[in-house]
Amino acid sequence: MLTRALLGAALGFFASSLVSFGFAAEPDPGAAAPNIWGVWLGTNGDPNAPPSYRNTPWPALEFTPWGAMESKRLTTPETPDECKPYGPMAHMSASSLFPLEIARTTKGIVIMFEASPLPRRIFMDGRKHSEDLDATWLGHSVGHWEGETLVIDTIGTNGRGRPLNGYISGAVYSKTDTAPRLPVSDQLQMVERIRLVGGGQYLEDEITVTDPKTYTRQFTVKHYWQRRPDLDVLEYFCDDENRGFEAKASAGNTR
Fold first, then answer.
1. Is the pTM of this model over 0.85?
2. Are the C-beta atoms of residues 118 and 107 closer than 8 Å to each other?
């Protein structure tokens, strides 16, 4: 009994020491937040989605000279950087092809999109953007709650993400989508306001894009997902050589 008492006292002292030195378990930043957690499937491309919960169309945009050249570069059959990681806007494209999952972490939120190899991390611990950020594919995201709305601010991207309006079936040239590709640069700032709608069965992301290197003005779109607890986010990867293999196969050479 004495041994157990001494052990209990030692553990208590150790735990209090961790708190004193700032090593204790961190509080759950999403414990009292609206239930945005779980698996969601975008409504973009789903003909059965309610009209109220479909992505709003891209507005008519005017490119800067750099933006016009970059759009032209991306509008090619080769789809440059097709298999590179997603940028934050493509990560939140609300595609009906791949689900995403939103989960809590000790320092914030992580959003896992099945089509992307990288998790998107939203820091909710009160930190600000650093002045010397290293540019990354998904950038640096900080967030906070304004009532029932999650507000996320993202900067620090490397500008190499796929177009905002994506690639079409592995090739930009499409009979159904002839719109110019919408690129991004390393000056992208993305502000999101995420909230539950439709009785909690849908998720709305109001996204405001500011990119003075690419566009002459900022613009706002809304993207939507439907709650899908019956789905799991699975492993997925992109193969740069898929079109080359298909071309060989159609020619009868599958080696």
1. no
2. no
